[in-house]
Specification:
alpha/beta, two-stranded antiparallel sheet, 5-stranded parallel beta sheet
Length: about 180
């Protein structure tokens, strides 16, 4: 995909998104190990580079400054070869990604994962509701061309291994696409 006249990247950029607890970071780290692509966990990136507008006490997370994040990531994304791991996707330019992966997890599995992380109250219920209503899948479909978006189940280690294998195969074939 040449992005309307732009030079095609030598290696693809992949966005791995989904509700917290669906396995984004685990999948991204395994995919990095399998392919050598650069893994960028956006939450860590925002903290390390101070790309936020403070702390949200209600949701217990940093308030991401979208302009600062996009400015900081622009050159890396143009270069290609990135796996960007974040629970949202509508803040990134469409031209950055060659594949958008939405990880989905059964509600009972997700509930267990989030409670083990210490999620309670509104933070827990909002994330479970996001998964029930497939908010992130809809966001991805609204933000990116349909042929870039793929939903993958992420309920078990076997699912993660299967997803990493499928994405690794896709990456290997990507460089041969026109």
């Amino acid at each position: 995909m040449d992005g309307g006249g732009m030079k095609k990247r030598e290696r693809p950029n992949i966005l791995i998104t989904g509700t917290p607890g669906t396995g984004k970071t685990t999948t991204s780290a395994a995919l990095q190990e399998a392919t050598g692509l650069r893994h960028i966990n956006l939450g860590d990136f925002v903290k390390e580079k101070n790309l936020h507008d403070g702390w949200d006490d209600e949701f217990e997370c940093y308030i991401i400054n979208e302009d600062l994040v996009c400015d900081e990531l622009e050159d890396l994304m143009e270069e290609g070869g990135n796996i960007l791991d974040h629970h949202g996707c509508d803040l990134f330019p469409e031209r950055w990604f060659d594949r958008v992966v939405v990880l989905q997890t059964e509600n009972a599995v997700l509930y267990d994962r989030l409670t083990k992380r210490g999620y309670t109250g509104k933070k827990l219920s909002n994330n479970i509701e996001c998964e029930i209503f497939q908010v992130l899948l809809e966001e991805a479909k609204e933000s990116y061309p349909e042929d870039l978006v793929v939903a993958l189940q992420s309920n078990s280690v076997e699912d993660i291994n299967s997803n990493v294998a499928a994405l690794t195969d896709w990456i290997k074939s990507w460089s041969f696409l026109p």
